């Protein structure tokens, strides 16, 4: 097992771990864009039908993310404690839990397919396309969930290269299969939206199979000592972190939907400008999101090893870095703003909204990065309740109310000022909350050492 996360230089170690994650995230962003581009060639009805599936697909992915967070936190802490036998038990049981959840979702999804999508608003014209797509996608639910858990086991050991590479290869395979299966090439028939779903399932299945060939992962899996009582104990431990993390993952799109509704009250040009802005924002946060996946294993391993001062230096060093980094991104966006407006704005009103967005919202992304890293750090410290409370404060006590108030007082610019203020305020709350918690842990360790 690797000791780099316990002994290596913090900044250099995190940099090396982040770079493959950034590549994998860019590949995953292209995954849905490629699917959407190919499906759009089939016509407006298939595209609208697949658009209806996004909330369901995102809910499943959120569950997979939660399982991955729980697995990474548990496995990394055990690695820090040097308990390799229990690492194998927890990693194996996490993979089995992911498989069981995938099979359960397949059964539930297929049996509730039409009622669910009717409830979501799909009409009779779109339901055949939705059945074609989700009928295959649901069959591959386990293939979507299992590799995310397996990747989290590797990241818990400090290996981010293989997960990043696997995500990139899965995205490339998906693009190739989309072309072959949606439109048909040579002897392959044109399957339409069924081909898009099949391409997704096959690419994730291939990724899962490739992961099982990794020696480092196989060494963490062991079915020889599987018992029902041990399995239930593992699942309870994993679920204690995974369930709150999955719920927290769902909070973000819910809050964004509420903000979008607030923006929509100011006209179509406002929604268009805000929509472009949010896509630029997602790209501007890639560095923070990569850190949020690479910092937790370092935190968990070192917390497990009792190296709380190293945990503190890692977390607050990352806080300082993202504040400086995101300010640099804000400056870059101001330089690129004329080009972005010329490329995306379709009129003066939309251009005004987008320019206001680019000035205010990215200015608060450093503080938002602090919050994102604080949430991931609390999960890594096995305190998911604190992580969830911090997310609720950010999204529902500050972001949505201040966006609404800003819209009432100052149109779309007021909304964006509200988003900026919400990020700054909750960033201060996150910094203070994590500092207090780490201080308490350090004092507890000092007291224990004094008594010894």
From TrEMBL:
Membrane topology value: Multi-pass membrane protein
Membrane-spanning residues: 21-40, 52-79, 91-113, 133-150, 162-185, 191-213, 241-262, 282-299, 311-337, 357-380, 392-409, 415-434
Keywords: Cell membrane, Membrane, Transmembrane, Transmembrane helix, Transport
Location in or out of the cell: Cell inner membrane
Superkingdom of this protein's organism: Bacteria
InterPro entries, A to Z: MATE_fam, MdtK-like, Membrane_Transporter-Flippase
Cross-referenced Pfam families: MatE
Keyword Cytoplasm: no
PANTHER family, per the entry: MULTIDRUG RESISTANCE PROTEIN YPNP-RELATED (PTHR43549)
NCBIfam families found in the cross-reference section: matE
Protein name as catalogued: MATE family efflux transporter
Lineage, top ranks: Bacteria, Pseudomonadati, Pseudomonadota, Gammaproteobacteria, Oceanospirillales
């Amino acid at each position: 097992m690797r000791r780099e996360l316990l002994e290596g230089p913090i900044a250099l170690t995190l940099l090396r771990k982040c770079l493959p994650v950034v590549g994998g995230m860019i590949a995953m962003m292209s995954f849905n864009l490629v699917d959407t581009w190919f499906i759009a060639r089939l016509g407006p009805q298939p595209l609208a039908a697949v658009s209806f599936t996004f909330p369901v697909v995102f809910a499943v992915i959120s569950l997979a993310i939660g399982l991955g967070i729980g697995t990474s936190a548990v496995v990394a802490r055990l690695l820090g404690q040097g308990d390799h036998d229990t690492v194998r038990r927890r990693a194996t049981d996490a993979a089995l839990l992911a498989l069981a959840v995938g099979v359960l979702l397949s059964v539930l999804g297929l049996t509730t397919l039409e009622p669910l999508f009717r409830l979501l608003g799909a009409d009779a014209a779109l339901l055949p396309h939705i059945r074609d797509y989700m009928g295959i996608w649901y069959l591959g639910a386990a293939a979507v969930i299992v590799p995310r858990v397996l990747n989290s086991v590797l990241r818990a050991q400090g290996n981010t290269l293989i997960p990043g590479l696997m995500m990139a290869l899965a995205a490339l395979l998906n693009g190739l299969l989309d072309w072959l299966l949606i439109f048909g090439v040579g002897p392959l028939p044109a399957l339409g939206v069924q081909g898009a779903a099949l391409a997704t399932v096959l690419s994730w299945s291939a990724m899962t199979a490739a992961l099982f060939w990794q020696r480092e992962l196989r060494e963490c899996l062991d079915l020889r000592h599987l018992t029902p009582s041990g399995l239930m104990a593992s699942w309870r431990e994993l679920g204690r972190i995974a369930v709150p993390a999955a719920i927290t993952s769902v909070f973000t799109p819910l809050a964004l939907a509420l903000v979008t509704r607030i923006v929509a009250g100011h006209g179509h040009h406002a929604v268009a400008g805000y929509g472009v802005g949010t896509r630029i924002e997602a790209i501007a946060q890639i560095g923070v999101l990569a850190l949020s996946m690479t910092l937790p294993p370092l935190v968990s391993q070192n917390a497990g090893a009792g190296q709380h001062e190293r945990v503190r230096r890692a977390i607050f060093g990352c806080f300082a870095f993202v504040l400086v980094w995101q300010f640099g991104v804000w400056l870059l966006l101001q330089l690129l703003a004329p080009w972005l407006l010329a490329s995306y704005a379709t009129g003066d009103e939309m251009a005004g909204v987008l320019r206001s967005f680019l000035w205010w919202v990215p200015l608060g992304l450093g503080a938002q990065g602090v919050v994102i890293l604080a949430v991931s750090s609390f999960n890594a410290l096995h305190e998911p309740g604190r992580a969830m409370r911090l997310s609720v404060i950010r999204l529902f006590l500050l972001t949505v109310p201040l966006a609404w108030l800003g819209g009432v007082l100052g149109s779309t610019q007021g909304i964006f000022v509200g988003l900026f203020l919400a990020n700054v305020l909750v960033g201060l709350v996150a910094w203070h909350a994590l500092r207090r918690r780490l201080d308490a842990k350090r004092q507890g360790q000092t007291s224990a050492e004094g008594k010894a």
